[in-house]
Design goal:
The chain is about 45% helix and about 10% strand. The chain has a six-stranded parallel sheet. Helix 9 links the parallel strand 4 and strand 5. Helix 2 runs antiparallel to helix 5 and helix 5 runs parallel beside helix 7.
C-alpha cells in the first residue's frame, strides 16, 4: 500500500538514523584528536535519486509523460521531453507545461499521466542493473542510505513494490515533503536532517542535471550516474551536462562507485 508523508518512520529507518548519528559523533572525536583515519572525507550517508538510479524507469516515465502531455495539448518529441522534464517534480512539470499552453486546462493531468505510467510500470519496470549488489555492499559496510526523489510517495512505493525492493528502502523522502523540489536543495537537506547527518558528509547519486544542481546547492558531493536505459546513446553529452552542473564524479555503473573513508566505518561503530 502506498505510504504518505505523514507516516511515522519505520523501525529500520530509525535504526539507520541512530547508526549514522553514532558514526558522526565518533568521527568528530577522531577529528578532534587528529586521528589519521580521518584524513580523507568520510561518507556517512548515501542519498539515491529514484528514477534512473534505483528504478530503470525513465524511458517509461518520459514516454508516458510525452503521451499524457500530448493528450493535454502540449506536443514534444522524446528528446525534448527529457531535456525539459528529467528530474522535475510533478508540480514543476505542470507549471512549465501550463506556461507553454496557458489556455490549457490541467485538472486531472496527474491522474491521467499516472494511469498510463502505472500500467506500464506493472508490465515493464525493472531495477537499474546492479542495484541489489550495490545495496548489499552498503549494508555490509554499515553505510546508511536513503531515497530522495522528485516523485510522489504513491509512485515511489508502487514502483518499489513492482520491483520487489520495498523492504530494501526503509528510508524514503519525496518532494512532497518540501516547499521546493530539485534543483532547489530543500529535499536533500531535508533527507540529511532527518537522518541526522551534516550535508558535507553526504554523497548524492543522480542522473539528472536538476538533481546535481540540488546537491551542489545543498553543499553535498555528487556522483553523476549514466547507467539508465534512457541515456543509451547519449552518455557522452549527458556526462558533460552533469559535469557542467557540478558533478564531482561520473560513473556508468553502480559497481564503479566507492566512497572515501568507507573502509573506516566499521572501526567507528
Amino acid at each position: 500500500m502506498p505510504r504518505s508523508a505523514s507516516n511515522f518512520l519505520p523501525i529500520a529507518c530509525i535504526n539507520s538514523i541512530r547508526l549514522a548519528a553514532r558514526c558522526d559523533r565518533t568521527v568528530l572525536l577522531a577529528l578532534n584528536n587528529n586521528d589519521p583515519r580521518c584524513s580523507a572525507p568520510v561518507t556517512d550517508l548515501v542519498i539515491l535519486d529514484f528514477d534512473g538510479v534505483v528504478a530503470d524507469s525513465e524511458v517509461i516515465s518520459l514516454g508516458s509523460l510525452q503521451s499524457a502531455l500530448k493528450d493535454f495539448g502540449v506536443v514534444f518529441d522524446l528528446p525534448e521531453t527529457r531535456r525539459r522534464f528529467l528530474g522535475k517534480s510533478l508540480n514543476a512539470i505542470k507549471a512549465d507545461a501550463s506556461q507553454i499552453a496557458p489556455e490549457g486546462k490541467w485538472d486531472g493531468f496527474e491522474n491521467h499521466w499516472h494511469s498510463i505510467l502505472f500500467e506500464r510500470f506493472s508490465k515493464e519496470l525493472v531495477p537499474v542493473a546492479g542495484v541489489a549488489d550495490f545495496l548489499a555492499r552498503l549494508k555490509a559496510d554499515g553505510l546508511p542510505y536513503c531515497i530522495a526523489s522528485s516523485s510522489g510517495f504513491e509512485r515511489i512505493y508502487f514502483a518499489l513494490s513492482v520491483m520487489k525492493l520495498t523492504d530494501h528502502f526503509p528510508c524514503v523522502y519525496s518532494a512532497q515533503q518540501v516547499t521546493q523540489g530539485k534543483p532547489a536543495p530543500d529535499l536533500f537537506l531535508y533527507a540529511a536532517r532527518s537522518m541526522n547527518i551534516a550535508p558535507e558528509r553526504c554523497v548524492v547519486i543522480e542522473d539528472s542535471p536538476y538533481g546535481i544542481l540540488a546537491a551542489r546547492a545543498a553543499g553535498m558531493r555528487s556522483i553523476g550516474f549514466l547507467g539508465g536505459q534512457h541515456l543509451a546513446g547519449s552518455q557522452k553529452s549527458h556526462r558533460q551536462l552533469l559535469l557542467a552542473q557540478g558533478a564531482h564524479e561520473i560513473v556508468d555503473a553502480l559497481d564503479e562507485i566507492t566512497f572515501e573513508g568507507q573502509a573506516h566505518l566499521q572501526d567507528r561503530v
